[in-house]
Design a protein that fits this description.
By secondary structure, the chain is an all-beta fold. The chain has 3 domains: 60 residues, no CATH class; 90 residues, Immunoglobulins (Immunoglobulin-like, Sandwich); 94 residues, Immunoglobulin-like, CATH 2.60.40.4070. It is 0% helix and 45% strand. It is built from no helices and 20 strands. The strands form 6 sheets. A 5-stranded mixed beta sheet has the order 6-13-12-8-9, with no helix packed on it.
């Protein structure tokens, strides 16, 4: 009997590979040695390679991708204001806002105070310290007292309003000394000291530390700036009479009637040197 040898020739047909596409991104699949059928099958995952940083496992409604993922769009955090510091001031001059806290702030943001029936108070010297913090300056001179709302608007038009965030107050207390800016940063800026007098009076203005050390003293004649009836404004550079700039801290200011020695008005000045 003859032996018949049968040679079986196996032809391997390479598996077809698909490029599957979801609604938001493309899946580029390298050759892989397992599975079969459409990559969108609900019974197995696609183990592919996408050239991007590994963000972990990303899921679509049809399959799971192991590897990198590049989103087709980016949505920034929405603009949201949470607080403003300080949150009140008198309508006697400019006020330095040290911190507007929130999220989603962008470079070039517009910052303003709003009150129905009044012109907006637009901030100047707006500085974006981070996407969650803004500093700026408002000029409150002569502005109407009340609770003003704070608005931040990004260059792309996104905006947020914090109602009643800032209180503007009217200065009417004869016994109160105000100053602006407060705090201030000598020697890079001076502060204006403001007080009211019922009549023309010769006065002495003194500034001393919380430990009662006399640091600065000036006399103002009756009828002239510093000693006239009504509003008076004088300037302090932060330089003491010892020819030294004072250090960080709180300082006390008194306006004293020279003839009687009576204190007519008093206040506090904060110094923050940077």
């Amino acid at each position: 009997m003859k032996k018949i040898t049968v040679l079986l020739i196996l032809v391997l047909v390479p598996m077809q590979v698909w490029a599957s596409i979801s609604s938001s991104y493309a899946v580029l699949v390298d050759d892989f040695g397992s599975g079969g059928g459409p990559a969108s099958s609900t019974t197995y995952g696609v183990f592919g390679v996408i050239s991007a940083s590994n963000l972990g496992v990303q899921k679509s409604t049809a399959y799971t991708i192991w590897g990198g993922f590049i989103p087709t769009s980016f949505s920034p955090l929405p603009v949201l204001i949470t607080s403003i510091t300080p949150n009140s001031a008198y309508n006697t001059g400019k006020i330095k806002i040290t911190k507007i806290a929130g999220t989603g702030f962008m470079p070039g943001a517009d910052v303003r105070l709003e009150l129905t029936g009044e012109a907006d108070i637009v901030a100047t010297d707006v500085t974006l310290d981070a996407s969650y913090e803004i500093s700026c300056v408002f000029d409150l001179t002569g502005k109407k007292e009340g609770l003003w709302s704070l608005r931040v608007t990004n260059p792309d038009g996104s905006t947020n309003l914090l109602p009643g965030a800032f209180q503007i107050k009217t200065w009417s207390d004869l016994k109160m000394v105000l100053n602006t800016p407060n705090p201030f940063n000598p020697p890079f800026e001076s502060t204006q000291i403001m007080y009211k007098l019922e009549k023309d009076t010769e006065v002495t203005v003194v500034i001393f530390s919380v430990t009662a050390e006399l640091l600065w003293k000036r006399n103002y004649p009756a009828g002239f700036e510093g000693g006239k009836a009504g509003d008076n404004v004088i300037t302090w550079t932060g330089l003491s009479d010892f020819n030294e700039y004072v250090s960080n801290g709180v300082y006390l200011v008194h306006v004293i009637e020279k003839s009687s020695g009576k204190t007519l008005a008093r206040g506090k000045i904060a110094v923050i040197r940077k």
